[in-house]
Structures are given as structure tokens and as C-alpha cells.
Amino acid sequence: MITLSHQRHELRLRHTFRLARGASDTRTNLFVELEHEGLVGLGEAAPIERYGQDWTSAAKAVEEMVARLAEPTVDPRAFDSAAELAAVRGQPAAEAAIDMALRDLAGKRLGAPYYELLGLDPRSMPVTSFTIGMDTPEVVEAKVREAAEFAVLKVKMGSDEDRGVLETVRGVTDRPVRVDANEGWTFEDALERLEWLHEMGVELVEQPLPADQLEATRELRHISPLPLFADESVHRSAEVPRLAEAFDGINIKLTKCGGMGEALRMISVARAHGLQIMLGCMIESSLAVTAAAHLAPLVDHVDLDGNLLISNDPFVGAAVEEGRLVLPRDPGLGVHRSETGFGRA
Ligand code: MG
Asked: Is 192 exposed, middle or buried (0-12, 13-18, 19+ CB in 10 A)?
């Protein structure tokens, strides 16, 4: 018998988070516990408003999924097929939570960290970037100084202030910078900015144009001096082949694709098409960030800092040492409740 409990938790951001699309101070995620044969698997859903999800739609979806998992023909130990059978399409955040919890259970049952089940070497972790949201020059400068231990910065762009933001960052550090435009540019904006960003030593640019402008992005890629990465343009593995001409790489997020199983499929398809891979996240606790980190030895770039942007993380998982995530060695995802847990710290 498999049973579910879930609860929502409001994650508080250390700084107001500003993107080309808007700003926020908190994010409400849904946390699940799946109990099976005396063990508990943990999962987290970080619903994305842009795609019509919130914690209530995620709660409804996880309940539906666990009802399917409880059917006598389904074996939750066969986590890959069980997650597929249970999936509620259109609710990838909820799918990711259940998929994650099933894999956590499997590792706990076998007494091994999940990365060992995949045969991965936890020492081969790329450095993780640290995100600098859009803000006033003073705040941007303070954030860059706070991020001293990170070897790579990811700077959010997509406004008239883009030049000022990067100049502020460059005034403080010459560390490598990646830029995320979050669909905030027109073709003309992108053309003009890409040249300049290249001169400023930027490594790559994420989602320069709106997701529906694939043809324009293809044109842009031909003339871009910098590699272009898809984020909002890519959700699941089936979409990867048609992006191969328009982008140099893709950003995979568990909450966008529906979990670790689908993320692994995306990695395979992207590799087959010669694309680079970045592993990203939303505003998430150490639970979902650690789940994603278990796949990090398979990718080129890591952008897993969502847990570092919040002040009331209910979990403890992967730590950061010299700018790299260090995977926990405990069985499953290796994640535990933090001292405050869901209490209001
Ligand atoms: Mg992005």
C-alpha cells in the first residue's frame, strides 16, 4: 500500500526576485511524502504560474497520481514505469514531485544514494552559477559581492537597464557571466546586445527571444557570437530535435519537464543532437535542488541555486563547496528536514 501526505509551504526570498516578466517576494511550493513498505520518499512541486499551475492544482494532481500508484497492477518499486503510468499531463510540477519521491524511495530501499543507481560519479560536478536578478545598481553590486564563492554568475536581463546591470557587475568582478534574457528581447535588441555582451566576456545567453519565435532564433543563432540556450522554448524530450538548429544548448528543469525520468530522456536526446546541456531550477527548496543535482554529473552547466535564494529552507541536502554542489551520501536523494523544517523560522 502506498500512501500520500502533502503540504504547502511559502518559501521566502532573501531579495525581491525580478525578471523580465515581473517580481516576487515569496513562492508557494507543495511538498509530498510517499510512504511505502515502511519507508518515506520525499518530493517537491514548484508550480509555474506562467503555465497555469499553482499549489492547489499541484495538490489535486498529486492526489490523482497516488490513487493510480495505489492500484494493484502498479508496482511503485518500478519507479520509472510507475511514474509514467501515474503522470497527470499538464501538471509537470506535480509529476516531478511524485517522480522524485519514487526515486527517493528506491534509493532508500536499496540503501544507496540515487546517483549510484544511475552509475554516476559525484565528483564530476560542474560549478554552479549564482543568479543575480534585475535590480538597482546598489542591490546588484551587493548581490555580486554576496556571491563571492561562486565561480560563475547568471545575470537576468530583458529590460532597458541591461547595459547598466552588466556594467555594474563588471565593476565588481571579472568572473564568467551568463545572461538570461527570459524572452525579454526583440530580434533587434538581441542583435545589438549580443555583440556587446560578447565584448564584455559573457559566456552564453539564455532565451533571448520569446519561446514562439523559433524561426527568428534560428536566424539569430547564425549571426550570434555567443552560444544560445533554450529555456522557455523547451519543456520535454519530444521538443528537443526541432530546437537543434535554433539553439546551441538547452536548460532542463525538473519542474518544467515532469521529473528526473524525463530529464534523463532530454539529456539523451540533446546529446544525440549535439546540444549542450544546462541543469536549472525555479525557486525551490534544497529538496528539489538536490534531486536535480543527482543528474549534474551528466551535464555541461549547472544553475542550481534556487535554495540559496530563500531564507526559510525546510530541507538540507546538497551543499555548496568552492562553487560546486556536493551530493549527500545518504540513501535516496539524501535530503533531510532542516532544523526549522516547515516551522516559521
Ligand atoms: Mg531561464
From this structure: middle
